[in-house]
């Protein structure tokens, strides 16, 4: 049981436990497991990977796309499940035997749209692999292959550790594929996995406590924000999406997202900037670092309340910008594994401040049917 | 006495170990005996072949690749080069034994000692044991 005011809620406790949770996942998806997950021939047939999912699962694909492309040397496309299942052309889904490899993510394996996407992929000749909790889920049953997460049980709260598990599973899948494709020298096979776990564990208890304390204080001053605007580039755009969705799930906050460039084109113009909690991810080794710095300065200038989450030195930022410093990975493309954690803590503490319930359970009748079935699991299936 | 040396290999390439082994023999001071060279790997091999033409070493690797190509349908599914490397290593061998006379390896006038890399590039180990008598 966690001690102290920072861990009085399930979401904050889950955030702190992510490294230990990932130790279990990493052990579950070991070398031998991956050897049997997909054959060499199927890997050799892959010219492109398409990752699809909804919500956090979709964000996991965006988070890991840059790292996967770096390791594999293959194109990785990420799309929302409804785009894949209803709007993609058939030629995009199956243009030659065993290609593309469609990776469908749903921890529960019960989301109708993702299952529909799997059916469509199979219809058009793509190879399919599910990242889901077990081989018994409906999604796993629809796919040719499955990577089982076998996630440990956690308290009821917006998902955080499961998201990191999905990201890590994607890394392990591309390590396996890269070995077969000779995308890297053999010595890197363990090194890539170790780098991921090393970064996850860099958010140790001391780091977690520091970040939690900072976000706990920030929640007190941000509780009157009318909305929240999250900004990130590349894999960090996923951290913006994922973090923002934790605000939605934890306390029903209104959130918007952009990358640093588009923010300057559009979100810049929001009214009442002083009432918008603005979060910017700045990765010091990101190719768009310079644009992120320019964006931070503009955010401050127009009167936004700004939180920068960065592995760069805090002194780089103007006075008045709050900086949450996070560990730096050897390769910045690993940072989306964990860089969202400050926002998860902030979501947890804002929910406490505002007195709302996770997923609106207990906040009124607007969100649930009498039968209790979420709309995401009850939808007409169309396999186009 | 066992001597261990590290070498850096390149993918599908041959590394000349002759000088390294000769040096170990000279340093041992053994005038008459046996020298055993071994590699503790399952995707690499040791051979004795002609040192005159490096293209001959390429022929060696090409022929091994022709006989045991890197394929995807091995029962062992780690990777095509790993699976085929295991077979090449097993069929080629991972140790050699040479006679020492008058403090030198009794190699033929064209003979050299070579490390064959089937799944690199990697850091590999060469183990040398020199026995007097």
Topology diagram in text:
The complex is a heterodimer of chains A (384) and B (133).
Chain A: H1 10-16, H2 18-28, H3 31-35, H4 40-45, E1 48-53, H5 56-72, E2 75-80, H6 81-87, H7 90-93, E3 101-105, H8 112-123, E4 127-132, H9 138-142, E5 145-148, H10 161-181, H11 188-201, H12 205-222, E6 227-231, H13 235-251, E7 255-258, H14 260-265, E8 276-282, H15 289-301, E9 305-310, E10 322-325, H16 341-354
Parallel strand pairs in A: 1-2, 1-3, 3-4, 4-5, 6-7, 6-8, 8-9, 9-10
Helix pairs in contact in A: 1-16, 2-10, 5-10, 5-13, 6-8, 10-11, 12-16, 13-16
Chain B: E1 2-8, E2 14-16, H1 18-28, E3 33-38, E4 44-50, H2 54-67, H3 80-92, E5 95-101, E6 104-105, E7 111-117, E8 123-132
Antiparallel strand pairs in B: 1-8, 2-7, 3-5, 3-8, 4-7, 5-6
Q: Could you characterize the architecture of this molecule?
A:
The complex is a heterodimer of chains A (384) and B (133). Chain A has 384 residues and is an alpha/beta fold. Helices cover 46% and strands 14% of the residues of chain A. Chain B has 133 residues and is an alpha+beta fold. Helices cover 29% and strands 37% of the residues of chain B. Chain B is built from three helices and eight strands, in the order ββαββααββββ. Chain B starts with a strand and ends with a strand. The model of chain B has no long low-confidence stretch (mean pLDDT 96). At the A-B interface, helix 4 of A face helix 3 of B.
């Amino acid at each position: 049981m966690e001690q102290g005011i920072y861990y009085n809620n399930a979401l904050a406790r889950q955030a702190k436990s992510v490294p230990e949770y990932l130790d279990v996942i990493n052990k579950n998806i070991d070398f031998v497991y991956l050897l049997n997950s997909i054959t060499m021939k199927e890997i050799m047939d892959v010219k492109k990977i398409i990752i699809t999912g909804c919500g956090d699962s979709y964000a996991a694909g965006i988070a890991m796309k840059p790292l996967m492309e770096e390791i594999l040397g293959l194109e990785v496309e990420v799309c929302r499940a409804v785009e894949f299942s209803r709007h993609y052309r058939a030629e995009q889904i199956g243009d030659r035997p065993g290609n593309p490899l469609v990776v469908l993510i749903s921890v529960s394996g019960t989301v109708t749209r993702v299952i529909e996407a799997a059916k469509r992929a199979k219809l058009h000749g793509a190879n399919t692999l599910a990242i889901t909790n077990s081989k018994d889920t409906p999604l796993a049953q629809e796919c040719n292959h499955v990577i089982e997460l076998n996630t440990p049980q956690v308290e009821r709260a917006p998902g955080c550790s499961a998201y990191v598990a999905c990201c890590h599973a994607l890394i392990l899948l591309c390590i396996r594929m890269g070995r077969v494709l000779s995308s890297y020298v053999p010595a890197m096979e363990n090194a890539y996995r170790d780098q991921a776990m090393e970064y996850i564990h860099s958010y140790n208890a001391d780091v977690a406590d520091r970040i939690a304390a900072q976000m706990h204080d920030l929640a007190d001053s941000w509780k009157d924000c009318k909305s929240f605007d999250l900004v990130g580039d590349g894999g960090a755009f996923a951290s913006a999406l994922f973090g923002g969705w934790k605000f939605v799930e934890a306390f029903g906050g209104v959130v918007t997202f952009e990358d640093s460039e588009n923010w300057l084109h559009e979100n810049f113009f929001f009214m009442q900037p002083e009432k918008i909690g603005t979060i910017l991810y700045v990765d010091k080794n990101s190719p768009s670092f310079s644009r992120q710095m320019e964006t931070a300065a503009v955010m401050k200038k127009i009167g936004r309340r700004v939180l920068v989450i960065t592995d760069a030195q805090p002194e780089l930022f103007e006075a008045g910008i709050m900086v949450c410093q996070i560990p730096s990975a050897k390769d910045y493309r690993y940072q989306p594994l964990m860089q969202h954690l400050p926002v998860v803590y902030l979501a947890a503490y804002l929910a406490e401040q505002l007195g709302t319930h996770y997923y609106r359970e207990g906040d009124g009748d607007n969100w649930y049917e009498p039968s209790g079935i979420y709309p995401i699991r009850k939808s007409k299936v169309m396999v186009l | 006495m066992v001597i261990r040396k590290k070498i850096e290999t390149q993918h599908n390439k041959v590394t000349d170990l002759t000088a390294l082994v000769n040096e170990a023999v000279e340093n041992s001071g053994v005038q008459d005996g046996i020298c055993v060279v071994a590699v503790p790997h399952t995707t690499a091999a040791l051979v004795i072949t002609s040192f005159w033409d490096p293209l001959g070493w390429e022929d060696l690797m090409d022929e091994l690749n022709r006989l045991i190509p890197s394929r995807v349908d091995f029962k062992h599914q780690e990777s095509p080069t790993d699976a085929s490397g295991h077979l090449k290593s097993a069929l080629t061998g991972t140790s050699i034994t040479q006679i020492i006379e008058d403090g030198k390896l009794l190699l033929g006038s064209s003979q050299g000692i070579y490390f064959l890399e089937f799944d690199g590039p990697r850091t590999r180990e060469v183990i040398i044991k020199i026995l007097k008598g």
